Amino acid sequence: MIRILHSVSNMDRAGIETMLMNYYRHIDREKIQFDFLCNKSKKGAYDEEILSMGGKIYRTPGLNPAKYPKYLKCMKKIFAKNDYRIVEAHNGALGVYALNAAKRNGIPVRIFHAHGASITKDWKLPLKYFCRAMLPYNMNVHYTCGIEAAKCYFGKKVVAKNDYTFIPNAIEVERFVFNAETRNRIRSEYHLEDKHVIGHVGRFMKQKNHSFLLDVFAAYSKRDKAAYLVLLGDGELMDAMKAKAEQLGISDKVYFAGNVDNVNEWYQAFDCFMLPSVWEGLPVVGVEAQTADLPCIFSDTVTREIDLLENNEFLSTSGSMKSWINAISKALKHTSRRDNTGIITENHYNIRTEALKLQERYLKLYGE
After folding, report:
1. Cα(348)–Cα(340) distance, rounded to whole angstroms?
2. What is the CATH number of the domain that holds 290?
3. Domain count, the chain
4. For 8, what's the count of Cα atoms within 13 Å in the CB-facing half-sphere?
5. Mean pLDDT of 64-72
6. What pLDDT band is residue 282 in, cutting at 50, 70 and 90?
7. Mapping DSSP to helix (H, G, I), strand (E, B) and coil, where does residue 231 land?
8. What domain range is 139 assigned to?
9. Among 217, 233, 312, 317, whose CB has the most other CB atoms within 10 angstroms?
10. What is the C-alpha to C-alpha distance for residues 79 and 85, in angstroms, rounded to an integer?
11. Do 355 and 297 belong to one domain?
């Protein structure tokens, strides 16, 4: 059995982490085990499941440049105690920390897995640009969730040479296929039977653009008194968004569900799905929503690679509010739901087939 060390933020319920868990659950764990290098001290929602499946969780001093000597010392101990030959980084540009430590300790296979099509512009931006520039000197295998993420992190030369591997953000399709019984149960439990439910799944952070989403919903709800917004997820901006909903006078029409373990059931209860992100790579939630046959409204910064069905709209967040309102009205007219297993599988997002492919890639890399 080989063990692969994945560098992440922490194993909470979010897009990258959910993708990793989907693959972890479906690989042959007698052949391959996943271990996780978490760079935040906070315990993750998936930690107990990881440990139950035989995975290990390590916590570093964090990705602060001032703590880099401590980080390297921590990594040296981890590598000394384990026979790792593959390290895979999922931290965006800051993933170079794990890859550099792996290179210093003689780890032969150093994978950078590109998930984002842009870099979040915050106070760490200069550091992120520096780290991205250092990636080519520390990674030797390119994985990506999509072409836009590949362009962002690998550059035009790598993309032009097709020197990367597409790893789909695959899901457990059968859990998300539309189920009328589940829909009725959730809507009854939360008193949504007579509501037009707009759904969103995402961590409360600047990238996901919750502030804009609340503005759109506030404008739309003036037209549709039955409109109701459900927000799944948690994060540092949740309290601020609750305050904004109160200011907009829509707090009685918005449900902040937090992190839940039945996201798949909530998709059944939604009537449409919105993702007005500032940027995305290829969002797992977009695949999940379309598997549930929900009409989706994306910002135009979300890659068109996610456009799997006919009922999707891509709109500019700097465009007119009217265009977003009209898109919601159009989406809510889509009342029949179908089984999209075939479409999702044909587009390589079925974890049952994609996990086997990834497993073989790891075994080949290990053998080489």
Report:
1. 13
2. 3.40.50.2000
3. 2
4. 26
5. 91
6. confident
7. strand
8. 2-170+350-367
9. 217
10. 9
11. no
